[in-house]
Design goal:
Elements lengths: L3 E8 L4 E3 L11 H12 L3 E5 H7 L16 E5 L17 E5 L10 E4 L2 E2 L2 E2 L1 H10 L4 E6 L1 H9 L5 E6 L9 E2 L15 E9 L2 E8 L1
Parallel strand pairs: 1-9, 1-10, 3-4, 3-9, 4-5, 5-6
Antiparallel strand pairs: 2-11, 7-8, 10-13, 12-13
């Protein structure tokens, strides 16, 4: 058994998560961000790559108005342990950093070494580490390299895609990095479950075929 994996994307119409300079707050509107917090609350863990931590210093907590929320485990894939000790998600014991380096103390986070793939934490090894902690569902929130690695491995079960009515162009940062596809038949395929307005944005939901 492995955790169920949901990839959440918040992009422009042309699939960009930030401008060329890295500006990304906020591409989607308030309604989409609220649904994003509901998705966080519905998963056991939230996972990002270290580039997201360095760029945005996210808290990765679920914040819903009017009610307390059981907080998910906050997980960072950090090959070379670049997560700052001052990072918001390193402030508590509900954080896990998965690395291929020798573990070192980073704030209050737990640091665990996992098997490497191409010099990075292997996605299957990461899911095994989460499974050992009782994680049944994980929400991936960034960035493009992390999304691509899980998609290449065929380990993304669902997509939750919030698409804002703006265009950022080819110089913007893509939501999914290179997949190294040799032919169209190799592309990850999904079935659309629903499409609905979410404020000014569009919320698309897919499951893996």
């Amino acid at each position: 058994m492995r955790p169920q994996v949901t990839l959440k994307l918040a992009t422009s119409l042309d699939g960009r998560i930030a401008t060329a300079s890295g500006e990304s707050k906020w591409i989607t509107g308030e309604a989409a961000r609220l649904e994003g917090h509901r998705l966080r609350a519905a998963h056991d863990a939230i996972l990002v790559g270290v580039e997201t931590v360095l760029a945005d210093d996210p808290e990765l907590t679920a914040r819903l108005p009017g009610r307390p929320v059981d907080q998910p485990l906050r997980v960072v894939l950090d090959s070379r342990l670049r997560t700052p000790t001052t990072a918001k998600l390193a402030s508590g014991g509900d954080s896990l950093i998965l690395t291929v380096a020798e573990p070192a103390q980073i704030g209050g986070a737990v640091v665990e070494k996992v098997k490497a793939e191409d010099g990075r934490p292997g996605v299957a090894a990461c899911l095994s580490a989460l499974n050992r902690r009782g994680v049944a569902s994980v929400l991936i929130e960034g960035g493009g390299q992390v999304a691509a690695s899980f998609l290449r491995a065929g380990l993304v079960d669902r997509l939750e895609w919030f698409r804002a009515p703006i265009l950022l162009g080819g110089e913007g940062r893509p939501c999914v990095a290179a997949l190294a596809l040799a032919k169209l038949a190799d592309a990850p395929r999904f079935r659309r479950l629903a499409v609905e307005p979410c404020g000014d944005d569009l919320w698309e939901r897919y499951e893996r075929l």
